[in-house]
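Illustration: AB hydrolase-1 domain-containing protein.
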Amino acid sequence: MSQHDVTITDHPIPLAVRDHGGDGPPVLLLHGLGGTLDAWQEVTPPLTGAYRVVAMDLRGHGLSGDAPWEWDAVLDDIEAVADHLGLGAPAIVGHSLGGMLATLWAARHPECPAIVNLDGLRSAENEPANYPGMDPALVERELAQLKAMFDAQAAAMARPLPPGQVAALPPRAVTTSGGDSYLRPGPRLLAAVRYAPHFRDAIPSLPAVRCPALVVLPTQDPPGMPGSELMAALRRGIRRDLAPVTEAHPHIRVVELAASHNMVQEKPGDVARLITEFFERTWRSQRARA
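Result:
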């Protein structure tokens, strides 16, 4: 079965899906905030030899429809994709925002066989206590720099794009309204996600995940991130707060990858290998117990 794109229309909003085909257990891929299903293009080829692989555009992203960002409604969108394509109980792989959704999906669906969360535990812009080992005054200064950068990005999303920039962008990244073109997602969705408690900190939701889960943490700062220490401190805080969770829930495994938050684009081969090895080990163990 070759790759093909479909749009699901028997749902409150249209949902754009790319079915990569493949034989084996179903795997559904969820991109991060501001991304599209194109993010997975270099990850999927190694996966389709062992899995049926499907990717989707989340609401307000890519070619999927616009609607208010409500976490339960987004989980309904994912369910509609799984039902439409007959995936049954797919394993979920999510990056960033997609990883946060994967944890909520597993909590809602105890039949989920496994999830992979690729650096989808805590947003960069967070509470000062989540940056341990830094001088509090420096935390405040660097958080102010980060907020200014994100505020500028949000403002840019609300402005029409110059025609020359539109031509250079992938079609899924742009929407047209009133004759002008804008980046997707829009500023309302960005604001709704940016300040949502689950986006700021998804670690408290992990204990509700009963299926095997792999959490992949980066070891490097994203390119262009302001501040000299903030991201390293954020990673320390995540490790600190993950430790008691994984100790109490040994089915949640944590590994680190020599990449930044943009690991899907930077190290697609390594990401695919981690996914494949984890799923193979998980399903081999499940078959042995059956």
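Reading the tokens back as a structure: The chain has a mean pLDDT of 95.
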